[in-house]
Amino acid sequence: MVRFAALSLLLPISVGAQWLNLKTPGIPRTADGEPNLTAPAPRTPDNKPDLSGLWRPEPSPYRFDLIQDLKDEGIFTPAAHDIFLTRVADFRRGDPVTHCLPGGPLEDFTGGAAQVYRIIQSPAVIAIIYESGFHRQIFMDGRELPKDPNPSWMGYSVGHWQGDTLVVESAGFNDRTWLDRVGHPHSEDLRVTETFRRVDFGNMQFQITYNDPKMLTKTLTIPLAVNYAPDTDMLETVCNENEKDTAHLAGKATAGVKVDPAILEQYTGKYIFRKGPPVAGSFFPQNPTVTLINGQLYLNDLPLIPQSPTRFDSTAATIEFSVEDSGKAMHFTLNAAEGDLWYERRR
Question: Is the pLDDT of residue 2 over 50?
Answer without folding.
Answer: no
